[in-house]
């Protein structure tokens, strides 16, 4: 379990500056090069090292949020002064990115951040918290323990109050990243369900549906995916009741703890990446943790289908026909198109049991969405323009890439089967769209719904402004924001 760094907001104490306990002092300067009172103090201690920097071509060429280091400054006991180019009234997004850049240069050194002149100083702290993540559960030896960070602000109460919900969301993001980064022999369907049960300590009601119950409910398309594995399939239902007694908002996640492809076996190269195929379930779990930690005034249910797609002797064969919980039969042409089989049953169950006011499902569903959108945007498929618009707006505020994709009868027609009600693949063309069409067959027309295909964004090969390489936690912030805007505004 990876915990975000501890951040403490303090009053600025400029008279003792220069003899800090932290190894690094961070100051800010806007593009006009004007120094605030804290930076002026550092400037005088260092015999105008800062003035020389902000007047240089180097500083002029720096982008917003970029960091320059003055190492072993004369006149101070700190190892370095980081000078961050950031306007005083910089947006929350810019402030977070700057925080991410600070965290990246800091590594695990502690810092005193002199942010009293910034409008969105809590967001700088948030960016630092999000970027300082390392998955080290599988490493022996010394773990990097990032030292604490103190942030000097004008108003300690205001900054702490602004930061408290952000810290809750950061907890959720870290939970998602830990789950997504975990190898499949460690995060099995069973240990995943156990981890989710721990959320009950935060007031989330957690219920685990075991295989016998899933049989009873008729979730045969979900069970068809897991039956080739020694790990039992499970559905976990998480309920957060922070609102009144209105029907809940539903989140549904694909939790394939490992996707070999099944009998339609994947090629060896890169198969190890399929440990992240529970990314949708990971985000749902992270959102539940986030809203519980910050005490959201909303009713939200999170459901995840936990299965392992393995080619065991009992595995589903290509050509098998299976009935879904809804009743429709599916000809399983390709056992590697398994995510939609899992989601079909869990989505149907979510609607039957909760009559949610809206439903959003997340899944690392198709390689095709990566061909379409790369790793910059998740695919957004929806039957409801208003809900889709609200989500896209929330994603924009949180700077999480999301792009609307089409649906249509012509795509749906590609799922026609010769012997069953539908087949589980629609061919290579528009692969992410036919996958979404498959899901839509399990959405009641009256349910406002979004499908998020996060195959390209759940885990990345390169680091970004607010995450190291590996699991990103994409979507936790946007969904938390959506819930806030919808129910708590
Ligand atoms: N889990 C994969 C999709 C995926 C690919 C996620 C790459 C993350 C990175 C999914 O189960 C899958 O195998 N999809 C197939 C569907 C095809 C058989 C119709 C795909 O995309 O190739
Ligand atoms: Mn697959
Ligand atoms: Zn998969």
Automatic annotation (TrEMBL):
Protein name per Swiss-Prot or TrEMBL: Probable cytosol aminopeptidase
* Originating organism: Marivivens donghaensis
Per the UniProt record, one Pfam family is: Peptidase_M17
Q: What class of enzyme is it?
A: hydrolase
How many cofactor units bind, and how? Binds 2 manganese ions per subunit.
Q: What is its main location?
A: cytoplasm
Q: Which UniProt keywords apply?
A: Aminopeptidase, Cytoplasm, Hydrolase, Manganese, Metal-binding, Protease
UniProt similarity note = Belongs to the peptidase M17 family.
Task: Give the binding site residues for Mn(2+) 2.
Answer: 254, 259, 277, 338
Q: Which residues form the Cytosol aminopeptidase domain?
A: 334-341
Asked if the record carries the keyword Transferase, the reply is no
């Amino acid at each position: 379990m990876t915990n975000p760094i501890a951040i403490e907001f303090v009053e600025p104490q400029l008279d003792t500056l220069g003899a800090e306990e932290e190894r690094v002092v961070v100051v800010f300067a806007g593009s006009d090069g004007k120094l605030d009172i804290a930076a002026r103090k550092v400037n005088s201690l260092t015999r105008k090292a800062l003035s020389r920097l902000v007047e240089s071509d180097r500083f002029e060429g720096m982008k917003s949020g970029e960091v320059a280091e003055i190492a072993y400054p004369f006149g101070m006991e700190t190892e370095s002064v980081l000078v961050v180019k950031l306007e005083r009234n910089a947006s929350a997004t810019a402030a977070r990115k700057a925080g991410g850049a600070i965290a990246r240069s800091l590594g695990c050194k502690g810092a005193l951040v002199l942010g009293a002149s910034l409008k969105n100083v809590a967001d700088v702290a948030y960016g630092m918290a999000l970027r300082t993540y390392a998955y080290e559960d599988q490493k022996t030896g010394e773990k990097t323990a990032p030292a604490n960070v103190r942030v000097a602000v004008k108003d300690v109460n205001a900054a702490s109050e602004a930061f408290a919900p952000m810290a809750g969301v950061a907890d959720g993001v870290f939970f998602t990243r830990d789950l997504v980064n975990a190898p499949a022999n460690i995060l099995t369907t069973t240990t995943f369900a156990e981890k989710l049960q721990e959320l009950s300590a935060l007031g989330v009601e957690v219920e685990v549906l075991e295989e016998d119950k899933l049989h009873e409910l008729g979730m045969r398309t979900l069970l068809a995916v897991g039956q080739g594995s020694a790990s039992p399939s499970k559905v976990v239902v998480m309920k957060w009741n922070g609102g009144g007694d209105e029907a809940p908002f539903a989140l549904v996640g694909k939790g394939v703890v490992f996707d070999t492809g099944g009998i339609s076996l994947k090629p060896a190269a890169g198969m190890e990446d399929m440990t992240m195929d529970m990314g949708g379930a990971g985000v749902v779990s992270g959102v539940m943790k986030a809203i519980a930690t910050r005490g959201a005034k909303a009713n939200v249910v999170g459901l995840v289908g936990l299965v392992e797609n393995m080619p065991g002797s009992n595995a589903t064969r290509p050509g098998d026909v299976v009935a879904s919980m809804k009743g429709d039969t599916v000809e399983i042409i390709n056992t590697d198109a398994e995510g939609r089989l899992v989601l079909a049953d869990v989505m149907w169950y979510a609607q039957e049991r909760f009559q949610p006011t809206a439903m959003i499902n997340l899944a690392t569903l198709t390689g095709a969405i990566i061909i379409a959108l790369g790793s910059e945007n998740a695919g957004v498929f929806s039957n409801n323009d208003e809900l889709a618009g609200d989500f896209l707006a929330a994603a924009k505020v949180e700077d999480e890439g999301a792009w609307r994709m089409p649906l249509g009868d012509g795509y749906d027609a590609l799922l026609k089967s010769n012997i069953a009600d539908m087949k589980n693949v629609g061919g290579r063309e528009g692969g992410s769209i036919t996958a979404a069409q498959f899901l839509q067959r399990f959405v009641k027309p009256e349910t406002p719904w979004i499908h998020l295909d996060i195959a390209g964004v759940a885990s990345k090969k390169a680091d970004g402004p607010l995450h190291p390489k590996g699991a990103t936690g994409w979507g936790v912030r946007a969904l938390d924001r959506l819930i806030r805007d919808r129910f708590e505004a």
